[in-house]
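Risk register update: the risk of archive-format incompatibility is retired. Evidence:
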Amino acid sequence: MTDASADIAQDGFANVAAPSGVASVADYVALLKPRVMSLVVYTGAVGLMVAPGAIHPVIAAIAVLCIAVGAGASGAINMWYDRDIDAVMERTRQRPIPAGRMDPEDALAFGVVLAGFSVLVMGLAVNWVAALLLALTIGFYVFVYTMWLKRRTPQNIVIGGAAGAFPPMIGWAAVTGDVSLESIVLFGIIFMWTPPHFWALALWRRLDYARAGVPMLPVVAGDRETRRQILIYSVLMALLTLVPWGLGTGGVIYLIVAGVLGAVFVAGAWRVWRTGPEDQGPAKLLFGYSILYLFALFGALLLDTPRMG
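Archived output:
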């Protein structure tokens, strides 16, 4: 950590309110980052359902539950570690720890227990390949993204985004017991989706990240470079979403839907590129659309995969 980051961290910890009492159930749910978890669980479940082979419904449900619990564990540990910067960011200062509703050590213990539980159950009830991928996902998010990259490089989202891209690969491995090219492509789609998704948010939350000392791309490289990178990653992502059709994972309907959704995404990224920093409307629209986009894209894959039926 740099000296400047250390100063910010020290100030942030000073702003973290002392725990005022016993945390509520809602506070523990908030630690799990349920909105983020919903995308993780969804893409993991789709990966499981489009994978070749059969899996007992109960085992499938356990696998999806383990993915959800593992994602929640990652979120809880992330909130424990980031409590200093959460205390100075407008959109995070009401989280349980900086708001003083929960002791940081309780959050850490909660996250560690859930992480161990999810990996152990995945290994014992499903298979150890899926469990290993789940452990890798949790470890990557906690140690590589949260503790190493987030405060040190504007490429934090690019590299750290791998953690959010693993779930469909985990779901696939739950059925097949291995990692295949098809599952790697699903990983790649989310990996390429993550930078434009988060950078669109960072464009209109830039001052928040700057205040917290987080070197997001708009803070370090400026708005124009961020907009250019958003467009580049959006084009690459849109092209990559066509690959599942070529591999036989998705059918013609999926190809059409992916093409249309990708064209709209690229058009939104183009608007962001062409708009100056004084108008953050296109960035807000792209951020909102990016969430719907991922749900719709994986939904189309689920509904039109030749391996179903």
